[in-house]
Inverse folding.
């Protein structure tokens, strides 16, 4: 029987291992930590649990959140009732749930660090601290700090954001999102069971600058971050050209999740894309009969059709969305201001938060829906300046 090695046991690796094992392949998952509290908000959108209902229907502790407060520099915060709740998990518990599913499907789970990879005839030998493992095919799911330089995205500095935050013992029932002046990024406060995950991500700012901005915000909100535990990690945020040249697969290997850079460049959502890419990779591996000549290309094509073109298009206007200005106000401040006055903009933001509004059809929707009142005409005008026409051939995907 053919053997597939899955390197990494986060959402991408655990889901790939589950699917591969369930399809009857001998599957071994190797992760140096297994279930751990990976620095993350742990937020799961409706788009994710609608496609993968097991993300909602499980016994793992989660917060089901239906309210978000959106704030921006010099704007009155707006309360948004989510039309579909966001689920928030501790990452340790979430990863454990996914690893349990993989094991139940028949995957062998090993707590080991992969230290080197050697190609051998028609397969691979993975070196670990305690020995070596042979496999016919590899799924690389080692995350954004992927140490395996020959496999997965070839990072450039502009393709990543710093993301850091605190786990703070406290309780609240809603999510806070705060946009800051002149920052391509945002602050989030996610309620979890027994604590908050409060963090900030941003491109082009140092970790020290981001940390100070986050601490200042938490002080203003009266949230005692000094009792919290600091976390930091890298968040993939590919530029448009990097999406196009992204190295996602090669002969007898495919990269999934963060190690392939598959994160929304505007929202930072990555868990859905980790699971979705793992699902697609495993179905291509099982159906391709391990043909190393074609499987990588088929995988890339399926990812493009499914979500890559949409994220690539999002990357083309992410910076303008965060840093653009309209009459001396930042665009996020304009959005928050106009959400108070335009029910249609409010609805659109609800759909963006649930993940049901894609980027490719956003401009069209604004043009069709936001031209009833003076306020809506202004909002439409602002967005038409920021969001380019999708290039011919990039069709709108229904997420
Ligand atoms: C601060 C922050 C907040 C975020 N918030 C959200 C959010 O709220 N919602 C959301 O959808 N996304 C969020 N993301 C993104 C999300 O965390 C990632 O997209 C997601 O974890 C990707 O899953 P993955 O399985 O690809 O990688 P990871 O979860 O990083 O898993 C990689 C695994 O590989 C293992 N590994 C690495 N190297 C080796 C090796 N050599 N040998 C063995 N094992 C190895 C690691 O131990 C790890 O378990 C956030 C990211 C950050 C940084």
């Amino acid at each position: 029987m053919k053997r597939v090695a899955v390197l990494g046991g986060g959402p991408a690796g655990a889901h790939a291992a589950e699917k591969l094992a369930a399809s009857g392949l001998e599957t071994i998952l190797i992760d140096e930590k297994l279930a751990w509290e990976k620095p993350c908000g742990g937020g799961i959108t409706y788009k994710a649990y609608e496609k993968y209902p097991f993300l909602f229907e499980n016994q793992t502790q989660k917060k089901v959140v239906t309210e978000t407060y959106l704030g921006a520099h010099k704007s009155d915060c707006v309360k948004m009732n989510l039309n579909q709740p966001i689920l928030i998990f501790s990452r340790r518990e979430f990863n454990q749930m996914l690893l349990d599913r993989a094991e139940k499907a028949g995957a062998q789970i090993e707590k080991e660090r992969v230290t080197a990879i050697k190609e051998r005839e028609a397969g691979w030998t993975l070196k670990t601290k305690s020995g070596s493992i042979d496999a016919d095919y590899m799924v690389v799911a080692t995350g954004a700090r992927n140490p395996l330089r020959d496999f997965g995205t070839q990072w450039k500095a502009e393709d990543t954001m710093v993301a850091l935050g605190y786990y703070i013992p406290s309780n609240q029932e809603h999510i806070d999102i705060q946009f800051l002046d002149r920052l391509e990024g945002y602050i989030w406060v996610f309620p979890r069971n027994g604590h908050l995950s409060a963090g900030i991500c941003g491109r082009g700012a140092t970790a020290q600058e981001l940390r100070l901005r986050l601490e200042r915000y938490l002080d203003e909100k009266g949230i005692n971050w000094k009792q919290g535990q600091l976390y930091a990690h890298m968040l993939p945020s590919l530029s448009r050209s990097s999406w196009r040249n992204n190295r996602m697969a090669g002969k007898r290997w495919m990269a999934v999740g963060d190690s392939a850079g598959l994160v929304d460049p505007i929202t930072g959502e990555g868990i859905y894309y980790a699971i979705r890419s793992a699902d697609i990779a495993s179905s291509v591996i099982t159906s391709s009969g391990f043909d190393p000549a074609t499987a990588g290309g088929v995988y890339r094509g399926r990812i493009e059709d499914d979500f890559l073109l949409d994220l690539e298009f999002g990357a083309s206007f992410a910076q303008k969305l965060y840093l653009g200005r309209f009459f001396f106000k930042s665009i996020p401040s304009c959005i928050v201001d106009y959400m108070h006055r335009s029910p249609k903009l409010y609805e659109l933001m609800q759909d963006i938060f649930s993940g049901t509004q894609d980027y490719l059809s956003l401009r069209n929707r604004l043009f069709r829906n936001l031209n009833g009142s003076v306020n809506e005409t202004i909002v439409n005008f602002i967005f038409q300046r920021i969001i380019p026409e999708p290039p011919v051939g990039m069709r709108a995907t229904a997420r």
The two ends are 36 Å apart (CA to CA). DSSP finds eleven helices and 19 strands in the chain. The first strand starts at residue 3 and ends at 7.
